[in-house]
Amino acid sequence: MTPVELSRTVLHAVRRAVDEGELAVAVLPERVVVAPPGPGGCGDYATNVALQLARPAGQPAPAVAELLRTRLLRTDGISDVVVTGPGFLNISLAGGADARLVRDILRAGPRYGHSDTLAGQTITLHAAPDVRALVLMDAVARVLRSQGAAPRLNSSRPPEDAWVRVLGVPEDIRVRPGTDPLRPVPAPADPTPLGRDAARWALLHPAPHDRPRIGDEHLVQRESNPLFRVRYAHARSRAVVGNAADLGFGSEPGPVDASALHQALADHPRVLAATAAHRAPDRLARHLVAVADALAPLLPSVLPLGDEKPSAAHRARLALAEAAGTVLAGGLTLLGIDAPEHL
């Protein structure tokens, strides 16, 4: 149910209450404004229509709100209605939790899942002086910053120029003696010929205790390549948003039958926190693969087919696809990998 449809639903409830003698209002509002709830509110949308009607109806606003609440609860697509404050109606839609998740992601953008949990903490990282350890340390530092921490990066030797220039390893790593707690299994070959994105993925996707593979399999544009699946899913999510705009409609969070994707998106903040806590970027990389794989079945149904007109279902699927693309872009950025809009 879109805000426009919900507005009409609330207005219909008002008219029915007047027709059946429960409300005595000479002039009905032409439209009902619904909007995300403000401070102290709850649910998906809120409206002040009961406050508007209270004076002309000669009833207290909470009484008008309760009357309308009873009617709205009998409406398909509405799961709950709560009266708050002086008489605001707070409406939760069926599938509202999923819609709120999507709305939260779109509101936060690529920073969805970021937090201030580690704010004020300076965390010292010390990596072995090899390419995989330094790339891993850089990715861990990025995720730590997303949780509010201020990481300090140390190694016993400065990074090689190619690692800085090609792979994006920070050049300001402090040279300090240490015990090298970040010491993953080294790469079996020089990863720089793969280029920044494929090389970083090759080094970060396996768990630190697993031996990474350094080969052209990370460059192929096929489903067998997890990096390709992640970046392709992001590019397709951006494409459907653009195509929907060309068709004249936009996204609106709503109920969508895609539980695996909703669960993967809801898990994103937890995954970022675990990645920071365990110094394990492979957790984030595998999570992005899970999001991409859960998004793939949704994409063919996002846009209308043929002469089909855009519906609330299309807008809800579009919002979910946009949210998934947002999570993929944010996660790739934290790994130091580009999220292109076209592949």
From TrEMBL:
Keyword vocabulary terms for this entry: ATP-binding, Ligase, Nucleotide-binding
Catalytic activities: tRNA(Arg) + L-arginine + ATP = L-arginyl-tRNA(Arg) + AMP + diphosphate
GO molecular function: arginine-tRNA ligase activity; ATP binding
Domain DALR anticodon binding per the UniProt entry, residue ranges: 230-343
GO biological process: arginyl-tRNA aminoacylation
Domain Arginyl tRNA synthetase N-terminal: 4-93
Key word Ligase present: yes
Coiled-coil portions: none
EC code: 6.1.1.19
The keyword Nucleus is assigned to this record: no
Enzyme class per UniProt: ligase
Matching Pfam families: Arg_tRNA_synt_N, DALR_1
Name this polypeptide is given: arginine--tRNA ligase
Originating organism: Actinospica acidiphila
Lineage: Bacteria, Bacillati, Actinomycetota, Actinomycetes, Catenulisporales
